[in-house]
Design a protein that fits this description.
This protein is 87% helix and 0% strand. It is mainly α. The radius of gyration is 19 Å and the shape is elongated.
Amino acid sequence: MTDAVTRAAALLKEHRDSIDRLDAILVYTLGERFKHTQSVGKLKAEHALPPSDPARETAQIARLEDLAVQADLDPEFAKKFLNFIIAEVIQHHQKHQE
């Protein structure tokens, strides 16, 4: 029994270590993404472009849903996640417009 518990603990640690690495990748990836969207927001403000681009947002959501299916991720979760990011980006773009 102890061997099974020890093995389970080792597997749990491996999974958690992987999760921690993936969380770091997500955070750094989001940081990089927001650097680019900040530049886009400044560019839009400089050229009096609207902070929101509904056609692009719709296309991006469809693209992400397709990627989610390919990655075996719930597409509805992916859609909610991207909608959250898009809302943040638009908010940042609106600040540049002020």
